[in-house]
Amino acid sequence: MPEPFEPRIVAFFCNWCTYLAADLAGTSRLRYAPNTRVIRVMCSGRVDPQFVLDAFAQGADGVLIGGCHPGDCHYQEGNYKALRRVALMKRLLREMGIEEERFRLEWISASEGDKVRSVINDMVAKVRALGPLRRPAAPAPSRELIEEVIH
Length: 151
Hints:
Elements: E1 9-14, H1 18-27, E2 36-41, H2 49-57, E3 62-67, H3 78-95, E4 103-107, H4 113-130, H5 143-150
């Protein structure tokens, strides 16, 4: 009997808020799906679109970005930069044939350990329902869109 599909999620968490919330969830012994691998970044605005593309190319079934709430960024406007990039990345991923539910941005402050748990569990459930990511042999996205996302 084949084993049930368990998605692999890569999470880029802001050092100052979401990463601390994940730490709080752990020290509070809040249980959440173990499918997520967390990568700490100094700011959600520092998540380069290439990191997201590489995660999918290397076998991730979903990518989660967690950052400070708008207005609370330690780098003033980093989370607004992340928001703009995510909007462009969603367009690029859609053109590549990757479902929108596989890529997500969440604002989670350092005191919201319970939100980390619920977001991770929700994302794992949604990606599990989608099944494994089939890297599509779709036509390449337009060069203009790639340039817009990268710059």
